[in-house]
Amino acid sequence: MFKHLAASIRGIGHRTIEGIWQLGHATRFFLLVLLKSGTSFRRFGLVIRELYYVGVLSLIIIVVSGLFVGMVLGLQGYETLQKYGSESAVGTLVALSLVRELGPVVAALLFASRAGSAITAEIGLMKATEQLAAMGMMAVDPVARVVAPRFWAGVISMPFLAAIFSVMGVFGGYLVTVTFIGVDAGSFWSQMQSNVDFRIDILNGFIKSCFFGVAVTAIAVFEGYDSPPTAEGVSGATTRTVVTSSLAILGLDFILTAFMFRGL
Amino acid sequence: MTPEVLVEISDLNFSYNSRPILKGINMTMKRGQVIAIMGGSGSGKTTLLRLIGGEVVPSSGYVKVSGQVVHELERDALFEIRRKMGMLFQFGALFTDLSVFDNVAFQMREHTDLPESMIRDLVLMKLHAVGLRGAHHLMPAELSGGMARRVALARSIALDPMLIMYDEPFTGLDPISLGVIGSLIRRMTDTLGMTSVIVTHDVQESLKIVDYVYFIADGVIAAHGTPAEVRDSVTPFVHQFVHGEVDGPVPFHYPAQSYRRDLNLEKALV
Amino acid sequence: MQRRTLDFWVGLFVMTGIAALMFLSLKVGNLDTYGIADSYVVKGNFDNIGGLKTRAPVKSSGVVVGRVADIQFSTSTYDAIVTMNIDSRYQFPKDTFASILTAGLLGEQYIGLAAGGDEVMLKEGDTIMKTNSAMVLEEMIGRFLFDKASEDNDF
Known about the structure:
Chain A is mainly α. Chain A has helices at 2-35, 38-42, 44-54, 59-81, 90-128, 131-137, 142-181, 185-195, 198-226, 231-260. In chain A, helix 5 (90-128) packs across helix 8 (185-195) and helix 7 crosses helix 9. Chain C folds into 2 domains: 1-32; 39-138, no CATH class. An 8-stranded mixed sheet of chain C has the order 7-1-4-3-2-6-5-8, with no helix packed on it. The longest helix of chain C is centred in the first third of the chain and has 26 residues, at 3-28. Chain A binds chain C through residues 45, 48-49, 51-52, 55-56, 59, 84, 86, 95, 99, 157, 159-161, 163-164, 166-167, 170, 189, 192-194, 196-202, 205-206, 263-264, and chain C through 1, 3, 6-7, 9-10, 12-14, 16-18, 20-21, 23-25, 27-31, 33-35, 53-55, 57, 64, 104, 106-107.
């Protein structure tokens, strides 16, 4: 009995130490990426290439999801608000939900599963097929040449994707409530404009998406670079990227929201 | 003129997680030579290449490449000396997102300021040397295993290195490709005046092209000599290895307690 | 992928992203009506602000002319000091009347400014003297019931 207890306590301790060790490992790698980012900016072509794969190829899923999320928000918001006779506030509801929360968060979740997993798989495969080692033997630092451009492409793409998501959402909400249901277009926009604040809502949403971009891509490149160089290793790392970054997005969102909107 | 020594390995020890991998290795490799390092799987051959390339640091002893101790070099000096080394990985390790042309041009673009027109000429020359000039526009996924290995070879000689290391260059190739790679290694070593180090367990093919052979077993050099000496060797290990015998100094059976006991036949006797 | 096509798509992506941010800032948000524009600060003391919050609009004749920047409680006068940022384009006479109003029955509260007739205009840091507190629903209902009761007693 006592032996059993000791073993499970040891297990918890072991996992804690392992976790902290891994966290330190990841932080060191993150700092290393930042340190070696010089090449990415001196040869911006490398980042542009990755921007295509990370940003442009994520556009479709972002645009379509944003549109649908906005349409659902419009329908649900209208259903509830019209009970209180304030259906003209539906624009406010759609815009605030999107700009503050859904835009940055849902776009980041989609980004993690579309681009984050692709980054992990690509770097992991390059490691498994010894491409990274080959690069190192050619006196080219793989962190500077492969990891850093992908990292910066992700960081740059995320705020744009979140903004596009929000705009598509507002458009979707407009489509459903104004075009289909018949809410007055003037009050849709004016209510929205008088209640959405540039600094508190839009700027904070933008800052959120920047944080998410850093978190998702940092996790993605770390998992890829750290993955065991086998087929199972790479697939495991890809799964971990999606799971870890989704949790990181939601946790980070709570912390950021607490800081940003505490006074309201 | 005696050929100068390019790589000198002295009393080299390497442990991984306090498990000794290499124990007291001594080797010399001269310019213009093709040297084979042979041994069973997991005998530390690849580790030796990584030590020469400075990817890992030895526990004791040193590797000298053209007079410099590799593991004592600063990062920049290490990268400087790596530019003079080429490495051919087991399956080529071509960059899958770049075309054949861009793969060969990779180092030239990273390390030199050559104009694009000159890079084009140089790349086509390197590809011509391995017979794949016509394939320069293909992507690595479109190549066969042997072709990929040849492109990787062209890539590793892109900057005319003085030392090329080959990690299992013959693995998984059909006999024709195998012969092509073998003769390419020999020819390039001779024409470019460099040193080639081949890690392999393909005895027959490598004995045809190499100047000197080292056998590594259990982390030590079990035997060494010229191909002729190796073929006629009476050392049991070398004999077993060269002739591919099933049992010998390297046993067929993984260490275990006696067969009879495992099958519970000895119980009655106890 | 050709370098030129790549550049084209990435350029398009970045432009779309910037356009989306602009749209959010200008069309969805209110960057054009508040924030960047010059403003001056005016204060007002209210006995009761009801549910007024910072960022609530300041309106005159229904037009948004500013925003509530800060709400403090004064321990010297025991009332609320509301600080407002008013757009510099709009000048108000010194005897302007500020009252806390409600948009609709349950809507949000805002400050309504009714211009007076004074020649002197409000300046940066001035205090509005004439204020009217928020209508508090409980008080109104209480007063209504009280009046009703006294009416009944007349008979």
